[in-house]
């Protein structure tokens, strides 16, 4: 199958036509040189990826996850990379291009090796986290706590529904219904967009994303999460909970949150803010044209916007609008939280997110993990 316009633009370092991109509709093999990782992305050398026998079992036995349906989809967003300009020099453009090619190739290899037996039928459930921007023909899969809010702001601006992203409030982003989910279209509309639109997802170091979600939802006032998740978590995992804690669900500890995540008989279901990215976006079923990293969010986002033909003045915002007084969740902060749990629990949480670590090529967060 011939390469798509996005593939051609990436290979030659050209900008895409402003009318939009025509992305891939089915996996294609690609023999490309594998580049160094993106700065700050904590990617490992793809040629050094090794999967043990135990890890192969984890990949093949990941259970299906059931969602709570009334969750909000709020997330903080950030960029820890140096500021990216509207245009990139040719060397940097080429490097970002090669990084994208390598990420997509790795995804195809992992899916072919470990997920080849999954059904190839795409249902409305599989696309429930994809948001549609028709003007520039973009499908964005939301991964909360990985720049989701600011990317939705940018899509709203691209659609011509707001003049600038900075003016869009957090509640407007997630509750204003400005963006349509792909699963609200009929099957013909879903498949047409999957075949002709550019499919995009951004991911984040899995344990850092999980800690960010815990801090956001349980260390700050949040009536929905404290009631829906906090009360059953405290009830099941706290030895002698106070009547006040059982009534409000306030004060869930990180260790209790970890116990909940690892429990195969959870007292309450999973939530999009801490579910695995591969479960949210189904990259072995949907052939994503662009896989971005939160750790280099600003530069990679603006690289993508230039590829789509978006006006040069449109850039991804980098502000943090939820709990702005809190420090952003970093590697050091993540390590401090995981010092509160046992070595076994830390290993099991890594196992829980192992598929994300492998698919998106993140290094082990702790040296003693196996």
Describe the 3D structure:
There is one protein chain. The chain is mainly alpha-helical. The chain has a domain at 5-32 and 78-205 and 283-308. The chain is built from 15 helices and 5 strands. It has a 5-stranded mixed sheet. The radius of gyration is 20 Å and the shape is globular.
Helix share, percent: 40-55%
The biggest sheet, with number of strands, parallel, antiparallel or mixed sense and barrel status, is: 5 strands, mixed
Strand pairing plus helix content: what structural class? Answer: mainly alpha
SSE pattern, N- to C-terminal: HHHEEHHEHEHHHHHEHHHH
The overall pLDDT average reads: 83
Gross morphology is globular
Total DSSP helices: 15
Strand content: 5-15%
Indicate the low-confidence ranges by residue numbers.
1-5, 15-36, 61-85
Tell me the total number of β-strands: 5
Strand order of the largest sheet: 3-1-2-4-5
Report how far apart the termini are: 39 Å
Q: Please state the CA-atom Rg, rounded to the nearest Å.
A: 20 Å
Pfam family, one: Sulfotransfer_2
Biased composition (Low complexity): 71-87
Membrane topology: Single-pass type II membrane protein
Keywords: Carbohydrate metabolism, Glycoprotein, Golgi apparatus, Membrane, Signal-anchor, Transferase, Transmembrane, Transmembrane helix
């Amino acid at each position: 199958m011939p390469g798509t316009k996005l593939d051609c633009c990436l290979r030659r370092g050209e900008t895409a036509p402003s009318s939009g991109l025509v992305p891939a509709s089915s996996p294609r093999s690609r023999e490309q040189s594998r580049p160094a990782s993106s700065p700050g992305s904590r990617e490992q050398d793809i040629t050094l990826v090794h999967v043990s026998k135990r890890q192969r079992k984890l990949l093949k036995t990941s259970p299906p996850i059931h969602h709570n349906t009334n969750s909000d989809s709020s997330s903080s967003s950030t960029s820890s990379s140096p500021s990216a300009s509207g245009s990139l020099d040719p060397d940097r453009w080429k490097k970002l291009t090669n990084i994208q090619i390598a990420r997509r190739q790795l995804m195809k290899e992992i899916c072919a090796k470990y997920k080849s037996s999954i059904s190839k039928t795409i249902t409305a459930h599989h696309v429930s986290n994809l948001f549609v921007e028709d003007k520039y023909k973009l499908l964005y899969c939301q991964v909360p706590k990985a720049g989701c809010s600011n990317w939705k702001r940018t899509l709203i601006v691209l659609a011509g529904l707001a003049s600038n992203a900075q003016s869009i409030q957090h509640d407007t982003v997630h509750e204003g219904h400005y963006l349509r989910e792909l699963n609200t279209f009929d099957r013909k509309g879903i498949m047409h967009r999957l075949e002709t639109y550019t499919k995009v997802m951004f991911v984040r170091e899995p344990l850092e994303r999980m800690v960010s979600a815990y801090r956001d939802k349980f260390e700050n006032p949040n009536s929905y999460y404290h009631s829906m998740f906090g009360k059953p978590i405290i009830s099941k995992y706290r030895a002698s909970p106070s009547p006040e804690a059982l009534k409000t669900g306030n004060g869930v500890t990180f260790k209790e949150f970890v116990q909940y995540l690892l429990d195969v008989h959870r007292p309450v279901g999973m939530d999009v803010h801490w579910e695995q990215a591969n479960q949210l976006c189904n990259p072995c079923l949907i052939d994503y044209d662009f896989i971005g990293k939160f750790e280099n969010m600003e530069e990679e986002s603006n690289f993508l916007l230039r590829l789509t033909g978006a006006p040069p003045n449109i850039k991804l915002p980098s502000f943090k609008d939820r709990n702005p007084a809190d420090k952003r969740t970093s590697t050091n902060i993540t390590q401090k939280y995981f010092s509160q749990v046992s070595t076994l629990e830390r290993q099991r949480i890594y196992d829980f997110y192992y598929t994300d670590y492998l698919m998106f090529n993140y290094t082990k967060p702790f040296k003693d993990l196996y």
